Amino acid sequence: MINTQLIASLQQELRAKAQELGFAAVGFAPAQDDSLRAQRLHEWLDAGFHGDMGWMQDRAEVRQGPQSMWPEAQSVIALGMSYAPDVDPMALEGDPEKARISVYAQGRDYHDVVKKALKALARWLVAEGEKRGLEVALKVFVDTAPVMEKPLGQAAGIGWQGKHTNLVSREHGSWLFLGAIYTTVPFVPDEAHEDRCGSCRDCQDACPTNAFPEPYRLDARRCISYLTIEHKGMIPLEFREAIGNRIYGCDDCLAACPWNKFAQVAARHKALAPREELVAPDLAELLELDDAAFRAKFSGSPIKRVGRDRFVRNCLIAAGNSGNRALMPQVESLCSDGDATVAESALWALERLREAL
After folding, report:
1. CA distance 229 to 310
2. 81: which residues sit within 8 A by CB, 6+ positions away?
3. Nearest Cα to 302, choosing from 84, 106, 87?
4. pTM for the whole thing?
5. Over the stretch 91-123, which tens digit does the pLDDT of each residue have?
6. SS3 state of residue 80
7. Using CA of residue 41, residue 44, residue 45, residue 49, what is the dihedral sign?
8. Which among 3, 141, 248, 293 could bridge 147 via Cys, Cβ 3.0 to 4.6 Å?
9. Ramachandran bin of 23, using left for φ above 0, alpha for ψ from -120 to 50, beta for the remaining angles
10. Strand 138-141 vs strand 176-183: parallel, antiparallel, or unpaired?
11. CB neighbour list of residue 7: distance below 8 Å, 6 or more residues apart
C-alpha cells in the first residue's frame, strides 16, 4: 500500500533540494502518455518540419510519451535552469564587425551543467527513498534522448509552450534549460500551466525567416537556429541574407517575448554565465580559425559540437552580409578551403563584399 504522507514529504523536500542544486523551476507531471501530444508530434514529423533531423523520426514512437519509453514510469519531474541574459540579445543586430552567438551558447555547455545537477538530484532521491523504505527507480534526461521536455514542462506547471514552441515561464521568461527525471515514485502531479500567450504574436513577427507557418508550430527547415547548428552542407540562398550576423543560433523569437521582463539574472545558474569573449566576438578573428584553434577556443562550449567547418561556414554568411570590406582578406583566403562548403560560402561572401558600397 502506498504511503501518501511519506511520498508527500519526500516531494516537498525534493523541491527544496532541486532549488539548492540550482534549478529555478521544478514541477511534477503524470508519466502516462498523452494522445494529443503524440498526435501533434506525428503531424509535425509527417509535415517534414524536422528537416534533416532524422533522429526525431527514427524514435518517434518512443518520443511520444514517457511510458512509451519506460512503461514502469509513474511520474515525471520537470526541471528548469535559468540562463537569463544580462544584456540585450538583440544589441549586436547589424553590427558589421561583430558576430551574434545565441545567449544559451555563450557560456558552458548546458548539457554538462544540467546533467550534473540532475544526477545529483537523482542520487539524493534514491538515498532519501531508501531511508524511508521506498524503492526508487529513475531515468535522467537532458536534451539527449527522445523526450518531449517542453510539453512535459507545461504538464508539470513550470511554464507553457508558447507560440514560438519554446517553454515560457511567468518568472523566468523564455530563458530556461529543461531537464527531466522519470521515476517509479507516484508523486502528486502539479496542475498543468495555462497558456498565457493570449493574442500576442511578437515572437511570430520577430522571426527573420518566417519559420512559423502558424502559432505553436515551427518549420525547422526555415529556422536560423536549425540552419546554423543542425543543418549540414550549404545554407540555402533564400535564407542567407536574413541570417545577418548570427553565426550560432538565433534568439529573436525568444527575446521578443514580453514575459522576459520578469526574468531575473539573479536566478541564472552561476555556471551558465557567459564567457566575455563570446558576448560580442570579432568576426575577423573567427574567420581565421583552423580546426585546432576552433577546438581550443570552444572547449567546454556547445558550439564545439558543430565542428570548425560548419562554424566557419556560418561566419562567412555573416561576413557576406556585413558590407564590411575589411573582411575581404580573410574571406578570400577561405575560397580555397579544403572543405567544399566553406569554399563555396567564401565565394558567395566575397562576391557580396565586392558589391558593397
Report:
1. 8
2. 22, 23, 24, 110, 113, 114, 117, 176, 177, 179, 269, 272
3. 106
4. 0.93
5. 999 999 999 999 999 999 999 999 999 999 999
6. strand
7. negative
8. 141
9. beta
10. antiparallel
11. 134, 185, 186, 187, 188
In angstroms, the Cα distances linking 98 to 81, 144, 315, 352 are 28, 31, 10, 17
Give the position of cell 511520498.
Answer: 7
Over 179-243, what HEC string results? EEEEECCCCCCCCCCCCCCCCCCHHHHHCCCCCCCECCECCHHHCHHHHHHHCCCCCCHHHHHHH
Write down the catalytic residue from 33, 95, 143, 339. Answer: 143
Has 143 been annotated as catalytic? yes
Q: Which letter does DSSP use for residue 233 in this model?
A: S
- Could you give the CA distance from residue 75 to residue 110 in angstroms, rounded to a whole number? 24
Residue with cell 507545461: 154
- The amino acid occupying position 300 is G
Report residue 300 as a C-alpha cell.
567546454
Note whether 319 and 349 are within 8 A (CB): yes
Structural domain boundaries in the chain? 4-85+108-183, 202-355
The C-alpha cell at 353 is: 563584399
The total number of residues shown for the chain amounts to: 357
Report in angstroms the alpha-carbon separations of 335 from 67, 191, 237, 317. 51, 56, 17, 13
Residue 2: its pLDDT value, please?
A: 67
Amino acid at 40: R
**Which residue type sits at 208?**
P
* Span 155-184, pLDDT tens digits: 999 999 999 999 999 999 999 999 999 999
